[in-house]
Structure formats: structure tokens, C-alpha cells
Structure to design on (678 residues):
């Protein structure tokens, strides 16, 4: 392949005219480099610019500024039918007047492929998505999951360099969605095609992706592997959006090469020995973040540092975990306790009003810039 | 009694269908049977119906004439066959012209900005607020020798210094066609618009994504998906055009006589309800046959209602 990157967006801006006549930047100076064979996700809530970015790669929208490159070639105003990418649409966009076979053959006929070649490739694609024997059905006669597979096969039969997927599993129920997540990932690895996957479902993105771009307000907040994004969120937005977090506002009191002490006014205390990221300065107003499953809860004080006494405000049993909400001098902390032992006795769980100690291990806390 | 009705779903259904059934029976089935009986009758000299069984009305309609020039007992006179043929071909032509005009317009409206769509649809509907007959008369004003079109053409020719004699447009088959197309255009625009408007934009994008340019997208996606609208429109246009007599009466004069005119005259002028009934039934059968073959090929456009 010609270029190291399957798709590249360089400083792309997309502005739309609002009904009031104003301008709004749906995508605001986005730069992304998506490697060949990568499973790349754009993650964000609705209106974050992820779908618009995908549509600019597909060619349904043109950039206002910046440029999209596919296989190293600048796309400019190349129409969708001349780009070597294919899309799986959110609502599948299947041709209802055509059979499954005709839906798949459509793209090949447009290429001018010969009849027996079309037959061969369609059969192969249907095998790939496990829909053999469904070729004479109309899309309406298929279940949602099957329609989703047809949409996938219709795009894959074209053997694109890059497959674009716009929330393709959004309409499926949870169980089917989880199955399809694994299947999609397996298919992507088997075919070695670059997948660009748009979703608002963080779990989906974490499950499948090699790399994720977390987007908000038209900008990329962080780009990295699922582990990087979850364990080292770049800012408060990412920490809040991906998974759950407890936040304390604070101020950096002292700073060494790789550790910081932070004064947290709400707790009227100092948290010490916390790992820091780049670009922080002494005296800066920051946010301390700790994931609920990383807070340790005990009934007595074991270590003295970073240990706080609180009162259990509520507990919620949710099967695999018990969510314990602890009031800590007016701040409510979420603590996820895994239910490692099978038990029924209510006394074995934390009771409302019970006094407990919370340990905020320094290596589990993060010091983040305020937004 | 009421309690029992609440539990009995099929009785509920019967009850709900009852008014319509009665309506259809009284106003459709019975009149049809009467028409059938009358069509086998004979006209008495004073214009009444003599109830008997004769096929005379039908043979006369299909060209067997007893009114022959050189005293023969019978001869072939294609007068009525021609009228039937003319009606059929006019209905075909009208439908064809209406589709040709309505489709691009419906397409334009369906792809317009949602805010403008309602205004365009409103403009399509405005003519329907005026009485049908008055609108046909308006065309008479436009088309006649001293009419608006001839006046404007005269001005233009005068400016260009070309000698101009007003065109004879009124009372020609062309005038009837123009009137018909005008009258029935909205009935084609609306169903086509409805089916076009229903097509998800993402289908156009999917077609482009799969490699289809604009022309191919139209032929392979847009057109097939809008066929239900075209079919529904065709039924709405073809059937009334087959039977109407007002347009041909006003714009065609004595020159363009259609089955509708024939039937009307048999009942009102010639006072021969037996022949009129036979013509009505033949018209109905012709329409049914055409519609049958058409819908067997293309469906009823029911997707427009269902989807």
C-alpha cells in the first residue's frame, strides 16, 4: 500500500449554517492518522462531530477547511462513488425493493464486474456474515441482526481499503450487540481491513478498538489505546465520559519530577505521592480523579496516608458488584466493591450509616487539568 | 347484550363493516344490477324501457348497424367502436403526459427544503379549490380564437413583423388532451411526491457509496422505489379520464366525442337508457380490464399506504 496511513484527517474543519443563519463548527480542527489494518473508533455523545468526521471520509460531506487523505491521496471534492471506502449505515440503508443477493450485487454491478464473478463474490460475502441461503429474501423478511449482516456484507463485498461503520449495532438488543462486537472484531482481524467505527457506546469502543479518539464539541479530546484512555485520561472530560470517576477539586502544593502533593480544600487535607502528567505547575488549580473500583474500603484504618473516614450513605446491589456510596465530609464518593464471595446475609454488606475508611492509593489517583 | 358484544371480536368486526356494506349494496350493487337489466332491454318509441332480453344494444355498440345507407338490413358502422378507441387512447395519452409532467415536479418538491415543501404542495392543491367545470371554461377562454394565447402570440408575431392568423385550438383533440392533463395533474403529483418523500436519504448515500453516480442512482434506486406512487397516480388518473365527459364537452365540442359524452347523450338527449346502460357497462369492463393487467404487473401502489 502506498501510504502508512489508511486515512488521514489534517486539521479538518466542517462548518454548517444553522437555521438562524449563524455558523456552527461540527468538526473543529481535527487531525487523525489511522493506520492500515487498524480498528479505530471515534467515541463521543451525539453532536460531538464523530459522524460528520466519518461522513467526510466517506465523501457525503466536504471539508470546510483542511483535507482528508485516503491511502495518501488528498480527496478534495472526490464524490463517494469514486472513493475506495465503503460504509455500513446506522439504519443499514438496505434497498428494500431488492433481494439480499441484489443488494450485495449492486455495488459489484456498478464496478462492471462480470456475472459469474458477482455470483462468486456475493456467495463468499454471505458466507462471511453467515447468511448463506438468505440470498432470495427481501430485507423486510429478515431480523434486525440479519439486516445488519446484510449491510455489512454489502459493504465488504466491494473489498474496500477502509470500512466505515456508523453506529452499526445501535439498533440491536444488548445480547446481540455484544455478540456482534466480537464477531466484527474477529472479522476485521481476519480480513485485515482498516475499520473506522463511530459509536457513542464506550464499552463497545473499549471492547473492539485498537485505538480510540474521544471526541467532544467537534474536537478530539484524547486519542489512544483503550487502556490509555481508561487508565490515563487526558482531562476531566475524558475521565468523566469514559467509565465513572470521583473528582475532588484541589491545588498543587508541591511538585517533584513525577509526583505531586495536592491540597483538597473540601477534605481539608493533603493527598501525597500522586503520579502526574505533563504540563502541570505548582499552585495550579486541578482536579483529582479516582475510579470507583480503585477506591479501597475497609472497616478500620490500616495506613495513615490518604486514608479518610466516611459514613455509608447508600448501597446498591447490582449482581457482580455492590455500589457503595460514602459521604466524606460532605462529598459523596462512589465505591464499587466486587462481590467475590457468594452470600445472602444482609449483615455481610455495608449498612447505611456505618462508619468506614476509604483508601485513595496514590498510584490509583490522577491529577488532571481543569476544563 | 353489550357485554357479550365486547367479548365477541368477530361480531364487532361485522358491526363495524355494516354501514359500508349497506352503502355499497344500495349505491353500487343494486344500481349495477339495474344497469345490467336495462342494458338488455329495448327502447320504446316514447323513450321508456321495454324489459326483455336482447343483445341489440351491444351489437350496435360494436358496429352492427340497422341504420344503413342503401337500404341494407345490416352493415358495419364503426362509429361507436371509434368512440371507445378514442377514449381509450386519450386516457393512455393523458396518463402518459401527466406522468411526464408530474414526476419531475414531484421530485423537485420532495427534494426541496422541508419548509418550502408545504408551500409547493399548497400551490399544487390551489386549483382544486375552484370548481372543475369553471377551470375547464377557463381553458376555453385561453384556447379560443380570440383567447389569451392567440392574443399574446399575435403581439409577438406583430413585433417580429410576421403575418399571423389566429390558431384554431379550441374544439380539437389537442384541446381536450391539454384540459385533461391540466385537470388530473395534481392526482399524479401527490402520490408520486408521497412515495419519493418516503425514500430515506441514506439510500441515495448508500447507492453513491457503492459506486453509483447520479443517473444510476436514479434508475436503480429512486425510480423503482417511487413506482408505487406512479401506479397509484395512474389509477387515480386513468379511470376518471376514461369516464369523464365535461372536458371533452367544453373543449372538444362536437368534434371530440368520448364514451362519457356518448353515455350522457343517450340518457339526456337521445332518451335511450338501454343503449346508455350498455355503453356504461362496456366502459366499466374496458377500464377494469386495463386496470387489472396494469395492477397485475405493477401492484396497486399499496406500499404507499402500508410502508
Amino acid at each position: 500500500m502506498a501510504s502508512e496511513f489508511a486515512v488521514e484527517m489534517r486539521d479538518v474543519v466542517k462548518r454548517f449554517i444553522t437555521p438562524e443563519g449563524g455558523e456552527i463548527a461540527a468538526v473543529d480542527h481535527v487531525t487523525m492518522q489511522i493506520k492500515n489494518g487498524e480498528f479505530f473508533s471515534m467515541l463521543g455523545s451525539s453532536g460531538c462531530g464523530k459522524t460528520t468526521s466519518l461522513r467526510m471520509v466517506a465523501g457525503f460531506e466536504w471539508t470546510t477547511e483542511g483535507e482528508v487523505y485516503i491511502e495518501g491521496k488528498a480527496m478534495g471534492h472526490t464524490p463517494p462513488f469514486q472513493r475506495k471506502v465503503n460504509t455500513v449505515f446506522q439504519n443499514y440503508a438496505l434497498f428494500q425493493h431488492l433481494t439480499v443477493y441484489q443488494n450485495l450485487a449492486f455495488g459489484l454491478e456498478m464496478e462492471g464486474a462480470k456475472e459469474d464473478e458477482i455470483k462468486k463474490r456475493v456467495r463468499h460475502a454471505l458466507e462471511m456474515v453467515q447468511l448463506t441461503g438468505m440470498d432470495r429474501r427481501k430485507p423486510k423478511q429478515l431480523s434486525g441482526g440479519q439486516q445488519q449482516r446484510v449491510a455489512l456484507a454489502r459493504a465488504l463485498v466491494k473489498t474496500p481499503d477502509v470500512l466505515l461503520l456508523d453506529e452499526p449495532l445501535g439498533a440491536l438488543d444488548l445480547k446481540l450487540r455484544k455478540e456482534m462486537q466480537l464477531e466484527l472484531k474477529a472479522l476485521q482481524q481476519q480480513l485485515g481491513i482498516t475499520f473506522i467505527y463511530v459509536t457513542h457506546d464506550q464499552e463497545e469502543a473499549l471492547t473492539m478498538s485498537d485505538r480510540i479518539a474521544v471526541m467532544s464539541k467537534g474536537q478530539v479530546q484524547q486519542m489512544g489505546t483503550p487502556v490509555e484512555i481508561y487508565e490515563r485520561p487526558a482531562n476531566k472530560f475524558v475521565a468523566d465520559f469514559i467509565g465513572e470517576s470521583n473528582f475532588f477539586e484541589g491545588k498543587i502544593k508541591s511538585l517533584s519530577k513525577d509526583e505531586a502533593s495536592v491540597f483538597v480544600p473540601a477534605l481539608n487535607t493533603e493527598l501525597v505521592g500522586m503520579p502526574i502528567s505533563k504540563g502541570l505547575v505548582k499552585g495550579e488549580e486541578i482536579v483529582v480523579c479516582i475510579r470507583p473500583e480503585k477506591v479501597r474500603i475497609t472497616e478500620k484504618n490500616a495506613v495513615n496516608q490518604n486514608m479518610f473516614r466516611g459514613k455509608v450513605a447508600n448501597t446498591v446491589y447490582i449482581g457482580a458488584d455492590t455500589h457503595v456510596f460514602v459521604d466524606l465530609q460532605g462529598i459523596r464518593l462512589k465505591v464499587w466493591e466486587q462481590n467475590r464471595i457468594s452470600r445472602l446475609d444482609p449483615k455481610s454488606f455495608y449498612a447505611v450509616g456505618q462508619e468506614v475508611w476509604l483508601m485513595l492509593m496514590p498510584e490509583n489517583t490522577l491529577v488532571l487539568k481543569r476544563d | 347484550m353489550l357485554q357479550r358484544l365486547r367479548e365477541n371480536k368477530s361480531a364487532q368486526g361485522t358491526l363495524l363493516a355494516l354501514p359500508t356494506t349497506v352503502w355499497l349494496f344500495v349505491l353500487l350493487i343494486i344500481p349495477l344490477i339495474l344497469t345490467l337489466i336495462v342494458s338488455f332491454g329495448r327502447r320504446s318509441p316514447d323513450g321508456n324501457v321495454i324489459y326483455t332480453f336482447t343483445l341489440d344494444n351491444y351489437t350496435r355498440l360494436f358496429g352492427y348497424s340497422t341504420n344503413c345507407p342503401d337500404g341494407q338490413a345490416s352493415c358495419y358502422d364503426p362509429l361507436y367502436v371509434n368512440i371507445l378507441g378514442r377514449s381509450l387512447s386519450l386516457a393512455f395519452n393523458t396518463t402518459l403526459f401527466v406522468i411526464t409532467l408530474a414526476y419531475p415536479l414531484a421530485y423537485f418538491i420532495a427534494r426541496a427544503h422541508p419548509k418550502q415543501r408545504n408551500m409547493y404542495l399548497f400551490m399544487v392543491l390551489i386549483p382544486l379549490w375552484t370548481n372543475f367545470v369553471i377551470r375547464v371554461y377557463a381553458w376555453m377562454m385561453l384556447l379560443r380564437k380570440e383567447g389569451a394565447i392567440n392574443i399574446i402570440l399575435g403581439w409577438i408575431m406583430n413585433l417580429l413583423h410576421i403575418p399571423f392568423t389566429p390558431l384554431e385550438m379550441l374544439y380539437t383533440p389537442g384541446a381536450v388532451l391539454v384540459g385533461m392533463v391540466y385537470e388530473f395533474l395534481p392526482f399524479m403529483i401527490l402520490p408520486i411526491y408521497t412515495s419519493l418523500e418516503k425514500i430515506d436519504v441514506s439510500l441515495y448515500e448508500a447507492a453513491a457509496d457503492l459506486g453509483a453516480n447520479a443517473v444510476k442512482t436514479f434508475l436503480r434506486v429512486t425510480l423503482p422505489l417511487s413506482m408505487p406512487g406512479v401506479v397509484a397516480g395512474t389509477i387515480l388518473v386513468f379511470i376518471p379520464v376514461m369516464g369523464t365527459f365535461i372536458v371533452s364537452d367544453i373543449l372538444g365540442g362536437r368534434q371530440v366525442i368520448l364514451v362519457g359524452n356518448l353515455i350522457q347523450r343517450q340518457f339526456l338527449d337521445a332518451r335511450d337508457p338501454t343503449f346508455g346502460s350498455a355503453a356504461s357497462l362496456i366502459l366499466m369492463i374496458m377500464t377494469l380490464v386495463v386496470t387489472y393487467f396494469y395492477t397485475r404487473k405493477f401492484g396497486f401502489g399499496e406500499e404507499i399506504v402500508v410502508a
In short: The radius of gyration of chain A is 25 Å. Chain A touches chain B at residues 58-60, 79-81, 85-87, 89-91, 93-97, 106-107, 110-111, 154-155, 158 (CB under 8 Å).
